[in-house]
Amino acid sequence: MRSTTSSCLLGAFRSLKIAHTPTTRPSIIPTAAAASRTIAGPQNVRLFSASASMAGNWLEPQLDRKKKMMKGRPRVPTGGSTKGTTVMWGDYGLRMTDHHRRISAHQLKIAEDTIKARLRGQKYRLYKRVCCNVGVFVSGNEIRMGKGKGGFDHWAARVAVNQIVLELRGMIHEQVVRDAFRLVGNKLPGQWEFVKKGEPPYVGITKLDGITLEELKRPRRKVSADTLHPLPPSAGPSEGNRTPLDLP
Q: Which residue of 39, 100, 191, 196 is most buried, as measured by CB atoms within 10 A?
């Protein structure tokens, strides 16, 4: 019995084969053929952005909250600049139409959440054109006048008249985007309008529709006196013959 078992074990060991595997690692030194190959890339292309990115996000920048800030007023470009009044990156935009104001970060966050809820499941990209970089300091309730400016309350953004606040681009129908921006305009303070890419810009409160910027900067034309025609006299009663209304 033992001889049979030992012979079976001996036959099993003989049938085993051990394969030899190399233990050396592959060489990471580039060969001459690999070094001779060149990587083709774009020529004269800047692979980075030269504009410095602002630290933080668009709702809360990394600024010192202890530093007091003046209330200030939004800068309305009236000297010929059309910056911030047209759609730049997206296809549709939301523009303020009434007058400048200060919008808090909480209100802008609600506007962003409204767009995300309305366009859930759609393929789009939202661009923010404003940044909440103004600190608002408020004194508490029932505090006497004076004694400093107060403590930090929230971040806000100064939005000028006819300025684009939000832009959107994606594979979405125009009517769906209009409805989303309508809901946003109902939640934000002020009056808003829906604009598309390619619409004429604004200079202050003047729309450059049918008029160029050079014509707007041109001084007013002088009208000669020969082209003016006096108004004809009125046929009604004169001032001296009119009866006062307070007499019986």
A: 100
Helix (H) or strand (E) holding 109: helix 105-118
> Which tokens belong to 117?
């809820």
Residue 165, exposed/middle/buried by CB under 10 A (0-12, 13-18, 19+)? Answer: buried
CB 7 within 8 A of CB 13: no
Measured torsion, CA atoms of residues 175, 179, 181, 182, in degrees rounded to the nearest 10: 130
Q: Which helix (H) or strand (E) holds 172?
A: none
CA-CA distances (angstroms) from residue 201 to 58, 74, 84, 211, 212?
24, 18, 9, 11, 10
CA angle 197, 105, 154 (to 5 degrees): 155
Q: What is the DSSP string of 198-247?
A: T---EETTEE-SS--HHHHHSPPPPPPGGG--PPPPPSS--SSSPPPTT-
- The full set of domains in the chain, from first to last, is 92-140+147-200 (3.90.1170.10)
User: Which residues have C-beta within 8 Å of that of residue 140, sequence separation ≥ 6?
Assistant: 150, 151
pLDDT tens for the chain, 248 residues: list them: 556 666 767 776 676 655 555 555 555 555 555 545 555 555 555 555 555 554 568 888 888 888 888 888 888 888 888 899 999 999 999 999 999 999 999 999 999 999 999 999 999 999 999 999 999 999 888 888 888 888 899 999 999 999 999 999 999 999 999 999 999 999 999 999 999 999 999 998 889 988 888 888 887 777 777 887 887 776 665 656 666 666 65
Whether the pTM exceeds 0.85: the reply is no
Query: In sequence order, which residues have a C-beta less than 8 Å from that of residue 165 and are 6 or more positions away?
Result: 93, 94, 95, 96, 103, 108, 111, 128, 129, 130, 159, 188, 192
